[in-house]
Each structure stands twice: as C-alpha cells, then as structure tokens.
What we know:
- The protein has nine helices and twelve strands.
- By secondary structure, the chain is an alpha/beta fold.
- The strands form three sheets. It has a five-stranded parallel beta sheet with strand order 2-1-3-4-5. The protein has a four-stranded antiparallel beta sheet with strand order 6-7-8-9, with helices on both faces.
- Residues 134-232 form the OmpR/PhoB-type domain.
Amino acid sequence: xRILMFEEKQIIRELIEPVMHKxxxxxxxxxxxxxxxxxxxxxxxxxxxxxxxxxxxxxxxLLNDVEIMQQQTVIxxxxxxxxxIKQNNVHIITKPxxxxxxxxxxxxxxxxxxxxxxxxxxPVLVEDxxxxxxxxxxxxxxxxxxxxxxxxxxxxxxxHLTLKEYELLKTLIQKPRQVFSREHLLNLIWxxxxxxxxxxxxxxxxTLRKKIPVYGAQVIQTVWGVxxxxxxxxx
Length: 235
C-alpha cells in the first residue's frame, strides 16, 4: 500500500515513518504546498491514501476540491473540523494525534471497505476488524479499545487524553472498586526510575477527571489516605 502525506514538520515525519514501515506500507512525504498540489493533480492514482496535516498557514488549494476528493480516500489531521467539506471518503483525526491512532484509523477504513465485499472469505480480516470495532472494556458509560486507545463516554469519543491519562483510566477501570495506592500507580504506569513524587498522580487524576464529561469526579474516586479507585456506582 502506498500513502501520500503532506507534513511540514520534520519531527512528525520522523515519528510516523517507522510506524508505517512496520505495517509494510510505503509512505511518501511532501513538505511544500505547491509540490503537494502538483502531486495530487498529476499522480493521484498512485496512492491508496492521502493524509493531510492542516496548519493555519497552509495554502492547499485542493483542500476542498470535491471532484478530486471523491477519487481518493483522504484523512485530514486538523484542529478545526469545520474547515473540511465532509464527503463519504473523507476522514478526520483531531489533533493532537499519535502515529498509533493514525494507523488504527487507516486499518478501520481498509477493513470496513473489504469486509462487506468479501464477507467470510477472509476470516483473518474479519478477525482483525474486531480489534478495531469492538471494545475490550464496556461499562455502563465507558468503552475502551486497547488496540486503538479509543475511549468512549456514552458513545462519544473522548479526545485529547495524554498517554499517562489513558493508562491511568485503563488501569483503574480494569479493576473497578479496587483501591490503588499512589505508589502502586506510579510503579505500574511510570518508569521505575521516574524522578517525580506521588503528587504526580494527583495532578494527572485531576486533569483526567476534568476531561471526562459529566462523570469524571464521580467515577474516579479518592480514597483518603490511600489512593484512587474507579467506581461507576454513581451517586
């Protein structure tokens, strides 16, 4: 599979390239808008996916070219969803994002296209799609998919969790009502040689609660003098 990606930032290209190669996917980067627009006009058929990282100063004249976008599957990386004309083959990932999230999105698109066409003839694909479309944990209000790190609250995707916030939620929710000490959480989620102290847990718990709509402070509970637990027995 061949992917064309418009990405101006070298640090992001360096993060994404090895992840794509690990999947045996070829990815070509374009860093200038004029070259990208020219590549789209002349060589669109070469690519299976187009990925566009949108920055405010981009001059992507083909950004909302409906005719061209109908010819190819496009993934936009953006902080402003409203600037994208939504088409059936247009997909959006809200920034900030991780390379793992991008890979998971591409696989979701591939499998959703293949499974209806081939059905049970490709059991491996059907098995794989379950990794991305089912959830490892489902509670009354929460769903977690470990492969994609997707978190849903009342079937709405929870955006912008940091890696540590996600790991905290995952750890707590896997053992509901079990009390975790701050030291235990540090050992589980942070490196053993982490130089910080247990107050780091308090800070991350505070931000995690704020990011979880409605239920944050109710389900992530403080056990005074001990630590924290996940309890969905909402009051």
